Amino acid sequence: MSKSLFDMFPDVSSKQWKQKIQVDLKGADYNDTLIWKSNEGIDVRPFYHLDEFENTPELSSAKVSNFKICQTIHATSAEEANSKALDAISKGAESIKFIIPNTSISSDTLIKDIDTSDTNIFVNTEFIDTDYIKAIDESVCVNTDIIGNLAKTGNWFSNLESDHKSFDEIVKTNNTIAINATLYQNAGANIVQQLAYALAHANEYLNHLDDVLDSKEKETLQVVFNVSVSTNYFFEIAKLKALRQLWNVLAQEYQVNPTCHIFATPSKRNKTIYDYNTNMLRTTTECMSAILGGADTINNLAYDALYHKPNDFGERISRNQALILKYESYFDKVDNPTDGSYYIETLTSQLSEKALQIFKDIEAQGGFLHQLKSGTIQRKIKESAHLEQQQFDNGALVLLGTNKHPNPEDQMKSELEIKPFVKANPIKTLIEPIIEKRLSEKLDINRLNNEK
Predict the structure, then answer these.
(1) Which residues of 161-172 are buried (b: 16+ CB within 10 A; e: fewer)?
(2) H or E stretch including 283?
(3) Does residue 44 sit in helix, strand or coil?
(4) pLDDT tens, 356-392?
């Protein structure tokens, strides 16, 4: 064919579409009827059009086809964790994340017989020990996040000076920094706040390391953003695309590697203990958003992770969800499936602009650490979480099976192997910690107390 298939159809402008919609509304107001405002302050329109762009959106640099399926393993025993990892790899896991509680766990034993050239290994230590971390095999990506620990627990591992000294030595050894942005989402921050805080969090490290790393180390610096993804499908896709754009801008200012690694996990905030199978639907769409948004690693959350200890069945189901998306739904066949979607491109741009403004405000007021110490970050997250909680309580935000169409016959009290509620921490803290809290927590407690 010498002409494009669509050449026979006349162009329809954005103005013409809006006029047609206005006629079909039969007098109803266009703005009041069809435009809704998100918690991020974004007006979401019923349609998006190319003629609303000054320039055609650029192609993204994400390689969606390369995403890896990860499984997290809590290493209470090095031998058992290694055996579990090898089993998971044989059943489809392409990456493993070990959470190490103490220095008695041998890192060499953890990765024994694992081909680290083919399987990405991530390690999170719940402590900071320079000698231990520096001895971990160089093929392993070690996530050391001293600011993330401060934000979550309210205290440094030791103290500010000691933590930063250890941090410098660790980064000089493995040339990697990690930013735990999952905390902000799970505590109730909206998407713009999540992006802004992740960027400001990273900026604290870059500013500190500016004189620590030489030019070659900066060029090869690996940055891992650990993010949580919720069920606002298109917004979450745009969030990850915006995160890459924002990191690229910040990295260029410091002349560091502009490529980052996004490690995505489904949110805990919207998960429930009642009608728990619905969690599988939530995590499936969240993994889809993460993949389409360009996450490098997808670590699914087991449907029963809130109330059961890690178990073979829950882990197999969560792993298989990701395998189905990759190998049966063919989510690994296109590198940039969302490029050219005017809606997603617009959301990405708006989220980036709003997050950048908050980031600039944080820096103008002393930086992320200063605002953590003053309680400003915590207060802003609480305000956002309170708004979302109100929406859940009044039914505007729906969790099926929990605040809409609950099954009164559900009995969960005997199922709780772990308590899925906020735990009081009596220790004295340097700052107010950022507390993760689920939307359905109060409702879950009331239902448990009323079980016969």
Answers:
(1) eebbebbeebbe
(2) helix 278-293
(3) strand
(4) 999 999 999 999 999 999 999 999 999 999 999 999 9
